[in-house]
Design goal:
It is a single chain. By secondary structure, the protein is an all-alpha fold. The chain has one domain (9-166). The protein has three helices and no strands. It has helices at residues 10-47, 54-116, 120-166. Helix 1 packs parallel to helix 3. The longest helix has 63 residues, at 54-116. The protein is rod-shaped and about 100 Å long.
């Protein structure tokens, strides 16, 4: 049996999922901005005439290449950070799934006990326990789905942006 202090409240679960959603949203927004920067740098590089002096042209080309490289590095770093956020969210989902599974097992145990109880009053209280466990499973399963959807959306957006940036690298 788990210690009570290790068991999060529903409010804590909801808040944690919300914070993770916010972090994933902010991460994808930042990744999108960096992808837009890569687009701008690449588009600019492709339209430059480079008809000045050889030294000036070489310096400008080198700087434009550096701009592409540094933007790609920033994108990779932000993408790694987003991977970490998603990884933490997946771990939390697994923890919630274990808690839901535990509630399911407890429900089975209470149901079994309910079948052996003779007094009406005890049966009613066990019925309340069953309802509480079912409600908790529904809550946890809903939060798991909420987190799973946010992570899937984030990963999909991240992959699209990665493809976009990959197409822009020299």
């Amino acid at each position: 049996m788990r210690k009570r202090s290790d068991t999060p409240t529903r409010s804590e679960v909801t808040d944690t999922i919300g914070e993770q959603q916010d972090q994933m949203s902010e991460g994808t927004e930042q990744l999108n901005l960096t992808a837009e920067d890569m687009d701008t740098v690449s588009d600019t590089f492709s339209v430059l005439d480079f008809e000045g002096s050889s030294e000036g042209v070489e310096a400008a080309k080198d700087s434009m290449e550096q701009a592409q490289d540094v933007t790609a590095e920033v994108f990779d770093h932000e993408s790694e950070e987003l991977d970490e956020i998603c990884g933490e969210a997946e771990e939390y989902q697994q923890d919630l799934q274990e808690r839901s599974d535990s509630s399911q097992a407890d429900l089975g145990k209470v149901s079994d006990a309910s079948g052996r109880i003779q007094t009406k009053e005890a049966q009613e209280e066990l019925g309340k326990a069953e309802e509480a466990l079912m409600e908790d499973m529904e809550f946890l399963d809903g939060q798991i789905e909420r987190a799973r959807t946010a992570a899937e959306d984030t990963k999909q957006t991240q992959e699209q942006l990665k493809g976009r940036v990959q197409g822009r690298r020299r």
